[in-house]
């Protein structure tokens, strides 16, 4: 441990210099005079020059502002990393890249041909509710991928009020554009149930292409012929393999957008003769377009099975089709390959897990990789130099999503956690995801926190969350992913990805510099999340969405004096990773290595963030614990009536201090990111605090905020329930068990304590996520800290799927 504070690294931008003082004498020179002296020629000339200079300066300043306003939506470079990714683009050309629908396919190109499934139960005396988009309001018993390898096949089960749908697909990869694929939709249930399946193909209006119905009879659609510039000619065939009392119909029409497909079907059913079958050809008076949306409808008594096969007419490779009797053979073969690879990668059977738990782990992993989507479009972004939001450039994004039902879009900090799982399965796939995200970096080094690209993604987002602000960050978790790759998969990475890393490096440097300048604090080596609202009166504690921990309590009154311990730790971790990347590429790394040494210095960390009152790591800022939400009477403008508004009331004036009352995940970041020295007494204190039930310890995981905190489980507004104020989150618990595993294996006096806590916490987490899945049919966004019940959006198979790595002990 060093005995003095280290000097800040050069280039940090901190200074103690002050601007020079100027005399005000000249401004009062003629005060009291009734007549001003006659201006001299020199004076006139000087004034004229001053006006010219001021005019030029004004024009230059306006031009400068115009220049600054364009930077927010100017790409870092027109050279795209994704084009250099070693991922075989043909093998991954087709996929289930529409995570927001229950089952659908598309390609990895803009304005793709898409296909998808809808269904409803027919013959019931109640309004038809068409299932299509994953929606929690559908109240399905469960749904999700049982097995999915991310490339060749997937098998899913959907249970809808006693009706079981098994959707599966198998790809026949060959030639250009990914080859062909076949899907089966098998529906079972009691024989009294009658279900209507609707399978469609659609192309976006901007695609140069067409769709044509291929009829077997007046009402039965045999297939769809079509053409796009990318695919050329293709055929989609429909074949009903099972069904009793089968009835066929179809719809061929023009849909306004991909986000309106469900409404288009519902509208057509509503105005059909019997209200339950599609009306065939429909040309709405307002649309002169040719069909871009064709649906086949098969209604039957259960059991019912529909086969859908896609093939390109121009294919030269006449290999055997995966249809009919060939389909189940191909599916079983891929399942066997998946099972074998899953055990090689995660070794769960070797670790002694039984079949039921292994099947659960396969499901959790499959839903992570099976929810990877391909999006294309333009975000809305804003900087302080633009009067209103402006469009980002149109771009693709290949990314996982946190939740198919609630968050079917890309989130920057979530994806770093997703990558920790994906990199074990296919490093090429993970590097392709990273490449797509860093292609979204602008010339300032900023990447938007959320990427809402395309009509389907935009339709699921409340308007208040659409615009992204270029002052706002998110934790740089991609560097955590890269760190794992460089430490544990160096040989595989070096063999295939060094060229890509070389192209990625300038973007990593600029990204790092962006954080280090825009998110720095007032004091050297301190950092502060931007984006908190200092003037709001409706929130009990202004949210810090940019930290990823949303309503986790920070200083009650946001100010520039705040110091956020979690962001400081993220930057320490980022500095270490940047040094490692530079070493791999044989570039100078001393800048990053020195910064890491500076930020990781425990003496300095403790001076800035260790609270002697709470004996824990804490944020610092303008804070008061005496804040309440109260209903305040407000008089209307006409002084006739009053209304009650829930407003924050401050009962004790805030002062600059450590935020001692908010012990929780933020307090653990020096531990999470392994900055605390293994021989430090501060580590021992953290280990003891972890096991205290009145703080974070529960029998089902570590809660996010101490039970003793005044804001534990408190609403943040009248209608804003607690989110990160007590619930158990799997991503943070993964960091906790990973840190405990680390401290149990490195030399230090507290190895035994760390190992004991690690074993107990790991078991608690695995058992609860598994038991809640068995009970509810879902993996959840977070879990209650009393009995471990699932909470929030579901299925949430983004970072909650890290339970697989906890089972496999891959940290």
Characterization of this structure:
This protein is α+β, with helices and mostly antiparallel strands and 811 residues long. Among the domains are: 94-346, Beta-galactosidase, Chain A, domain 5 (Distorted Sandwich); 677-811, no CATH class. Helices cover 31% and strands 22% of the residues. The chain is built from 17 helices and 30 strands. The chain is globular, with a radius of gyration of 30 Å. Residues 1-37 have low confidence and may be disordered.
**Total helix count?**
17
CATH superfamily membership of the domain at 94-346, which one?
Answer: Glycosyl hydrolase family 63, N-terminal domain
- The residue fraction in helices comes out at 25-40%
The shape, in one word, is: globular
Short description:
The protein is of the alpha+beta class. It is built from 17 helices and 30 strands. The longest helix is centred in the N-terminal third of the chain and has 31 residues, at 41-71.
Furnish the topology, listing elements before pairings.
Blueprint: H1 41-71, E1 94-95, E2 104-107, E3 113-122, E4 142-148, E5 153-160, E6 163-172, E7 180-188, E8 194-203, E9 209-215, E10 221-228, E11 232-253, H2 261-270, E12 280-281, E13 293-312, H3 326-346, H4 355-370, E14 373-377, E15 380-382, E16 390-391, E17 395-399, E18 410-411, H5 412-425, H6 427-438, E19 450-451, H7 455-458, E20 467-469, H8 477-488, H9 490-518, H10 565-584, H11 590-600, H12 602-609, E21 610-611, E22 616-617, E23 620-623, E24 627-635, E25 642-650, E26 655-658, H13 669-672, H14 681-690, E27 697-698, E28 701-702, H15 730-745, H16 751-776, E29 782-783, E30 790-791, H17 803-808
Parallel strand pairs: 11-12, 15-20
Antiparallel strand pairs: 1-2, 2-3, 3-8, 4-5, 5-6, 6-7, 7-13, 8-13, 9-10, 10-11, 11-13, 14-17, 15-16, 18-19, 21-22, 23-26, 24-25, 27-28, 29-30
Helix pairs in contact: 5-6, 5-8, 6-9, 8-10, 9-10, 10-11, 15-16
